[in-house]
Inverse folding.
């Protein structure tokens, strides 16, 4: 958990299970302007201090293990050529929260 009034990228984590993993997801969110704002707000709310670890599941992971991840960064940009599309990059990192 981040320190009070601290940003989530300052969260204290312990890497107690070996290799530290960073997962980067890039994508396009399609929706109305209101839906895009809701999408951005939901992720930024988590990023800005209300984070708890979440399970990351991917079809690319061969072993049955799952990762406990936190949001490291979330970036988005808008192409005005298509107002219904929002480009984003979500970077996650694995760790065990200090409790």
């Amino acid at each position: 958990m981040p320190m009070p009034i601290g940003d989530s990228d300052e969260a204290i984590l312990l890497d107690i299970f070996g290799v530290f993993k960073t997962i980067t997801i890039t994508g396009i969110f399609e929706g109305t302007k209101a839906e895009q704002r809701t999408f951005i707000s939901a992720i930024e709310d988590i990023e800005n201090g209300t984070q708890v670890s979440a399970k990351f599941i991917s079809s690319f992971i061969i072993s049955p293990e799952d990762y406990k991840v936190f949001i490291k960064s979330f970036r988005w940009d808008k192409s005005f050529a298509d107002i219904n599309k929002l480009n984003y990059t979500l970077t996650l990192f694995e760790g065990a929260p200090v409790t």
